């Protein structure tokens, strides 16, 4: 099958990029000229994006961040959720369980708390590559929901993932990997540090503090699972806007040749060139 990049070119479209040669500072500066993303149409504050961070996947985080900033036409504020910092600040004290494949398995649920329970914010795993404009996600936000996410029906057959981490299967698998949080929604005030540090994985990852009707749905292309979701060449609506290397990405040696790995490598090389220019 053709690579996604080839498919896009064959349809007369390139992967969206503000300017591949822009340095990181220039990319970030350009964002200030965009229209702010808000939940009520009046806020001028940047849209807050919290990215799960694990020291083993530092490069994945940097490339994810870069891909967001490069393509966003609205001001965004990208912040890594680092477990070590949360522990130092007394916000996170939970003992790590054997089935936690990353350091952000549970810290992700602190997103509304970190956003001061105000407005909308997004959490996303670091193993994402954004091909779409965050503004398109902002346009999907609906105040009647407490959260919004891609509602996958996903049951992986693999027993391990990434660099040998145990693969677990549970209801609503991968729903929590990319979530739009309506942080001001009363139900999300449940997500205080005390709750995030003590509640079960089932309670948190299955969003059991919410009723089903309080969970809005986002098109699957915003959490396109490599190895699960498929591109239909004749259907542009199936082209991923955010690729999720959920089993493992090219930053792991054993996954360097994974599907859509060429797109991530291209973005990584571009990011490194931008960093070299900044340091020069």
- CATH names the topology as Spore Coat Polysaccharide Biosynthesis Protein SpsA, Chain A
Largest sheet: 6 strands, mixed
- Overall pLDDT score: 84
How many beta-strand elements?
11
Q: Give helix and strand order, one letter per element, not per position.
A: HHEHEHHEEHEEEEHHEEEH
Protein name: Nucleotide-diphospho-sugar transferases superfamily protein
Keywords: Transferase
InterPro entries: Nucleotide-diphossugar_trans
Organism: Actinidia rufa
Structure description:
This is Nucleotide-diphospho-sugar transferases superfamily protein. InterPro entries: Nucleotide-diphossugar_trans. One of its GO terms (molecular function) is transferase activity. It comes from Actinidia rufa. Keywords: Transferase. The protein has 280 residues and is of the alpha/beta class. It has a single domain, classed as Spore Coat Polysaccharide Biosynthesis Protein SpsA, Chain A (Alpha-Beta Complex). Helices cover 26% and strands 14% of the residues. The protein has helices spanning 4-10, 24-31, 58-71, 83-88, 111-114, 134-138, 193-196, 201-205, 261-279; strands spanning 47-52, 76-81, 120-124, 128-130, 147-149, 160-161, 165-166, 178-182, 215-217, 224-225, 242-244. Strands 2-1-3-8-5-9 form a six-stranded mixed beta sheet. A three-stranded mixed beta sheet has the order 4-11-10. Helix 3 links the parallel strand 1 (47-52) and strand 2 (76-81). Helix 3 crosses helix 9 (261-279). The N and C termini lie far apart (40 Å).
């Amino acid at each position: 099958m053709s690579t996604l990049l080839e498919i896009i070119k064959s349809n007369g479209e390139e992967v969206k990029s503000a300017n591949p040669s822009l340095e990181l500072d220039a990319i970030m500066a350009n964002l200030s000229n965009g229209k702010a993303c808000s939940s009520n149409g009046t806020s001028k504050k940047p849209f807050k994006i919290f990215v799960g961070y694990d020291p083993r996947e530092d490069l994945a985080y940097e490339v994810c961040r870069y891909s967001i900033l490069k393509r966003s036409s609205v001001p965004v504020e990208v912040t890594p959720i680092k477990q070590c910092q949360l522990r130092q600040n007394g916000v996170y004290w939970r003992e790590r369980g054997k089935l936690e494949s990353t350091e952000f398995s549970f810290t992700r649920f602190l997103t509304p708390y970190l956003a001061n329970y105000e407005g909308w914010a997004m959490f996303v795993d670091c193993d994402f590559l954004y091909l779409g404009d965050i503004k398109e996600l902002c346009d999907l936000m609906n105040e009647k929901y407490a959260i919004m996410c891609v509602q996958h029906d996903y049951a992986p057959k693999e027993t391990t993932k990434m660099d040998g981490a145990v693969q677990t299967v549970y209801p609503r698998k991968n729903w929590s990997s990319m979530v739009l949080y309506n942080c001001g929604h009363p139900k999300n005030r449940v997500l205080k540090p005390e709750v995030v540090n003590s509640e079960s994985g089932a309670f948190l990852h299955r969003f059991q503090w919410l009723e089903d009707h309080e969970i809005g749905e986002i098109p699957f292309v915003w959490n396109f699972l490599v190895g699960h979701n498929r591109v239909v060449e004749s259907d542009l609506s199936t082209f991923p806007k955010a690729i999720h290397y959920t089993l493992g990405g090219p930053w792991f040696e054993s996954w360097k040749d994974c599907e859509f790995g060429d797109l991530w490598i291209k973005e990584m090389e571009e990011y490194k060139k931008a960093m070299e220019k900044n340091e020069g």
